[in-house]
Amino acid sequence: MGFYRIINFLGMKKEKLILSFIATLFGLLVAGIAFYLFQSTKTIPVTTTKTISFASPTPASPSISLTLDRPKDEDVVGSRVLIVSGRTTSSAVVIVITDSSEDVITPSANGSFSTTVNLDEGQNILEVISIAPNGESVTSKKTVTYSLEEF
Asked: Which residues are paired to 124 by β-bridges?
């Protein structure tokens, strides 16, 4: 007789579980319909809407400049030592980068600077960076070829 009690108990449990599941689905369906009806009948008064417009920022002209007098781009030189000179903002710091070195230069009061760099044989890429105290920077790249051949 104990076996039939267990089966009856499980049978009741299944019925309660199925009934709970159906009730939950029905409740979700009713709540979804009510929410849809609420949203579709809701109106927004015209006076409460606001129009926002954004103006795109105009880039400020850089307050730092960099002009290289020497070397010219695509120069071919017969000397390993090359003079790099130019002008920038007087408060800036100038960095001259080659494949084998980095030099940091402080320009004079009028903004002029000059330094020498050693070139490797063949093509060398010179990168000159001028950095203002506020973090703005300007970069100039030049390609210089060191060759011992006569032209």
From this structure: 144
